[in-house]
Write a structure and sequence with these properties.
Layout (H helix, E strand, L loop, with lengths): L4 E14 L2 E14 L3 E5 L6 H9 L6 E6 L2 E2 L5 H11 E5 L10 H11 L5 H13 L15 H14 L4 E5 L7 H17 L3 E6 L10 E6 L2 E4 L2 H4 L2
Parallel strand pairs: 3-8, 3-9, 6-7, 7-8
Antiparallel strand pairs: 1-2, 1-4, 4-5, 9-10
Helix pairs in contact: 3-4, 3-5, 4-5, 5-6
């Protein structure tokens, strides 16, 4: 159901030890996201955006609280169980693209399908289809060092969507791109996420990105607040 929370964060707390001091990053954080929402997460560098994405993905565990995705509380899973959950349910788009240099574009997109254990031809053909969807249908045999930054990010988007995860996490996906290329990437990301009915959390410090969002949230002082439309324009 679209009106039911797909992601719920309950009293989420995370801190890090810095020398002899403890620095709180997230403080009793609460959030509900419905399936199919596109959330933009604003915050300055060091505000905790990446920490929050790491908790939502299960890469890290909270000090306390719950991270519930589709009824599964990641905070109650061990590391292996979180890895398997992430492999099946979550796709990633990073600022630095994170493509594997020894694999060509098609093989990079194919990787999450292989990790998921998919081998049938119909499903494997989705890797090629997603490359076509991002406008790189003719570049499948090209290696990352032969692709521009914008093309690498397109491959990363295709890879994030190929195994059909319900949740996409994007961490500064346009941070290494010029303005025009970044705009093209956002258009592709938005269109494909909408087309495939995926939920996305996109972390950024760029308020220009907010126009594609269903909701804009800002993390400040370890808390999340919803940003009104008028404030986004500031």
């Amino acid at each position: 159901m679209k009106d039911k929370a797909y992601i719920r964060l309950n009293k989420l707390t995370k801190s890090y030890q810095e020398g002899d001091k403890t620095r709180a990053v997230l403080d009793d954080l609460e959030l509900s996201i419905t399936e199919g929402e596109l959330i933009v997460l604003l915050g300055r560098s060091g505000s905790g955006k990446s920490t929050l994405l790491n908790l939502v993905s299960g890469i890290d565990k909270p000090d306390s609280g719950a991270v519930i995705i589709g009824g599964t509380n990641l905070a109650e899973l061990n590391e292996k169980e979180r890895t398997l959950f992430r492999r099946k349910n979550i796709g990633f788009v990073f600022q630095s693209f994170n493509l594997i240099s020894t694999l060509n574009a098609y093989e990079n997109v194919l990787l999450p399908l292989k990790l998921k254990g998919v081998t049938d031809e119909e499903t494997l053909s989705k890797a090629d289809q997603f490359l076509q969807d991002v406008g790189l249908g003719d570049r499948g045999d090209s290696y990352p060092d032969r692709l521009s930054g914008g093309e690498q990010q397109r491959v990363a988007i295709a890879r994030a969507l190929a195994h059909e995860p319900m949740l996409i996490l994007a961490d500064e996906p346009t941070g290494n791109l010029d303005y025009e290329t970044g705009k093209q990437i956002l258009d592709i990301l938005e269109n494909l996420v909408r087309k495939n009915g995926r939920t996305i959390i996109l972390a950024t410090h760029d308020r220009d990105i907010c126009k594609i969002a269903d909701r804009v949230l800002e993390i400040r002082g370890g808390k999340l607040t919803e940003v009104e439309d008028s404030a986004v324009q500031l």
